[in-house]
Amino acid sequence: MSFLTGLLKSVVVVVLIVAIAIPLRYGSTDYPYLRARVAHSLLTFRYSFASDPDRPHLTAEYRAFETLLRLRPLLADHLYADPSQAIKLLRLHVRSNNVSPKPSECQIDKEVFVHNQHSTDGFWINHPPRTFQKKIDKLLLYFHGGGYVFGDIETYRGFECYLSQLFNMTVLHLEYRLCPEHTLPAAIEDAVAIYRAILNQGVSSSQIMIMGDSAGGGLSLLTTQALLTQQLPLPRGVIVLSPWADISISSESYTRNKDKDVMLRFDQKEWLIEQLLGSNASQLSADHHSVSPLFGSFEGFPSLFINVGTAETLEDDSRKVFAKAKEAKVDVTFEEGEHLMHVYPMFFGYFPEARRTLENIRQWIQTKFDQKLNT
Ligand SMILES: *[C@@H]1O[C@H](CO)[C@@H](O)[C@H](O)[C@H]1NC(C)=O
Ligand SMILES: *[C@@H]1O[C@H](CO)[C@@H](O)[C@H](O)[C@H]1NC(C)=O
């Protein structure tokens, strides 16, 4: 009898831990998210007893996250089995595997921005809640990644809320039009339109930083190049995480780092380019500077921060942008994450390598805002 009671008590304790303590610990009741967190904790525990002799400086937390991605790849091959379904499946897959949920106290407000009869959606993100004062406050205009084919406020708000809190800035998320429904340059038109719209609202360009990751990093560079061409006032600075700067996928790192990259594979290169450029693929070539900023000019760029991992296929995109920016005498900072994956700072909740780079970016932003402009 007492044995049974004891067993029952143990079961109750275990159920309580699973049902209450874990959701409390991670601030969420989303099952796939909690499953990932628990798997990550268990793997971290295991790796804390086993070092990686080839990569001794990586934390157990990082290696655990990397293993999780290997077990459950973001861009699994089966997604491409039927090309007509691939994008739809990809979007569903990404949504149902959100790695950073939105903190409940983070405030998000939608606004429809209109410029020259062109309307585009934006989301103001404030963590903690506050009101953006247009004439004074600093603004981070954020362009999300996702190969120009997926990503939205739902998949990015967790990360953007974190940035708002860490940088002590209001973040403005752009919901740009995605491919293949809206092929390039639709996304660039949306980005320039929202920038013009906020300038028209009375925000000064010197209050604005533009930031983006992956395709959003490419979009940040393309947008800055478009602002230069259109002779618009430039933002205070531009920050890019693993920017996809060459959609023709021509760099050597695409093959060199293929086996190390746990996130991106470009086995479907022609298919992907066709999604981005649509029926114009033959007219608008993928290595044209209007869609691949690497082949455009960096002359006259504002301060630029580039971050990339050395275990990713996009490594050389960043190295080449860095070299071109330096050649053009841009004030450019380059931070490489040795042995780290594509857009690793986005996984700030899982490993310290991510938080360290974001802290460096925070300090960089502060320095750039503190500098006196000579314009
Ligand atoms: C955050 O920014 C506001 C102005 O936007 C400023 O008043 C406040 O002191 C800043 N907080 C910190 C911790 O720097
Ligand atoms: C596609 O090509 C047509 C005809 O050359 C052109 O009018 C149109 O602007 C192009 N679209 C894009 C998105 O480049």
TrEMBL record:
Keywords: Hydrolase, Membrane, Transmembrane, Transmembrane helix. GO terms for molecular function: hydrolase activity. Residues 140-344 form the Alpha/beta hydrolase fold-3 domain. The chain crosses the membrane at residues 6-27. It comes from the Eukaryota. The keyword Nucleotide-binding does not apply. InterPro entries: AB_hydrolase_3, AB_hydrolase_fold, GDXG_lipolytic_enzyme. The keyword Ligase does not apply. This is Alpha/beta hydrolase fold-3 domain-containing protein. It comes from Adineta ricciae (Rotifer).
